[in-house]
Amino acid sequence: MAKKQDFASKTMKSKHGKTCPVCGEAYTYVKVVNTEPSQKEGSYRFAEQIVAVCKCNEKEVYA
User: Which residue has the higher pLDDT, 13 or 50?
Assistant: First the structure.
């Protein structure tokens, strides 16, 4: 019988995706949502942005 493989072992085995040239870690992508005041209406809008996070910039993104 074959050994059962779970999802965690599959992801640890494969190194796919882009890696950081500075620290060598694989990027994890996070959606950052900022509130910005609207110029026309005076209300607030949500600006969404997807950011690649690694060990180098995680303090800047999560702060």
Answer: 50
The first and second tokens of residue 47, run together, are 């600006």
The share of the chain scoring above pLDDT 90, in percent, equals 35
Judge contact between 7 and 24, C-beta under 8 A: no
3-state DSSP of 2-56: CCCCCHHHHHHHCCCCCECCCCCCECEEEEEEEEEECCCCCCEEEEEEEEEECCC
For the chain, give every domain's residue range.
18-62
Query: Can you tell me the distance from the alpha carbon of 32 to that of 17, in angstroms, rounded to the nearest whole number?
Result: 20
**Which one has a higher pLDDT value, 11 or 44?**
44
Nearest CA-CA partner of 50 in 27, 33, 25: 33
